[in-house]
Amino acid sequence: MPTLAGTMAHIILLEDERVLREEVVEFLTVHGHVVDAVGSLAGFARVFQPEHHTLALIDIGLPDGNGLDLVQQLRAQQMSLGIIVLTARSAVPDKLAGLARGADHYLSKSTDLDELAGIIAALQRRLDAGGLSLCWVLHTVGRTLVPPGMAPIDLSPHDFAVLKTIIEGNGQPVARRTIVDALGDDYFTADPARLDTQMRRLRRKVNEATGKELPIKTLRNEGYQFYAPVEVA
Q1: pLDDT tens for each residue of 55-78
Q2: pTM recorded for the entire structure
Q3: Domain membership of residue 43 as a residue range
């Protein structure tokens, strides 16, 4: 099964389970990618070549450390590298932690390999087009949200009001009351479920348009927090 034209990637795979490592290598090689596979952080350090590798698939639970520490270190170097976490830890808090520390995608090991191939192809195309910005951008003119390295997403007036209010928290939690006020509602009489519904729709809109999770953390009974780099333009 050939890969899509123009999407060949030079991948480094960090996975300590030998059988899974060999399965992923075989699958991605059939799709036309070049894959270097290692089973530990020490092996990654020996093999990784930033001038050659364009994508990294990284497990979290490793024999010599935590893969998320590696993700954070790689992202801190500001290199044009696509990073996909592939792990057995699929709980929402783990996923949020992986995205917050710099992963472009966070996938469970139960993810279908065809889906993994599609994500790799899309990520490589964006890298081929000039690399990935690490920053989300909210445009006030035209009311659009631009995820890192992707096309703008049109926002409704309510989407925009919610996002702008949360982003203006500068990485700190923003109270539900502040967001409800920004929507023009009275906090004491408004239906409390309305904001939750609005957030679900917004998350779904971003995910359907990009395949990425909207980097907003829900703080139960408190509010919401935008945890990724972001700017308002």
Answers
A1: 999 999 999 999 999 998 998 786
A2: 0.57
A3: 10-128
